[in-house]
Amino acid sequence: MKTMDCKDVLANLSCYIDGDGSAELRTALEKHISRCRRCRVVFDTTGKMLKIVTDAEPFEVPLSVSGRLYTRLEKVLSEA
Q: Helices 37-55 and 23-35, interaxial angle, to 10°?
């Protein structure tokens, strides 16, 4: 498998978190995350957010929050 970049990690992060994907994919993701501070922060934050959300009652994310999140993700992806 080719070396992953940040875009590859973000595209495959949900598979990794869900425990899906091949062992090769998981290894490549882990290798990149161990070297890349930005992706490690995204991975850690996503994991923490999922823990909070799954332990809490359902709620709707305010549009202002989701809008800022998508704007920031688009900026990060365009810089990678």
A: 110
- Average pLDDT of 27-44? 93
Please check whether residue 1 lies inside any domain of the structure: no
Q: Is residue 75 part of a domain?
A: yes
70: containing domain? 6-79
Asked, for residue 60, whether it belongs to a domain, the answer is: yes
Q: End-to-end alpha-carbon separation of the chain, Å?
A: 19
Answer yes or no: are the C-beta atoms of 32 and 41 closer than 8 Å. Answer: no
pLDDT surpassing 90 at residue 67: no
Question: pTM (2 decimals)?
Answer: 0.62
CA distance 45 to 42: 5
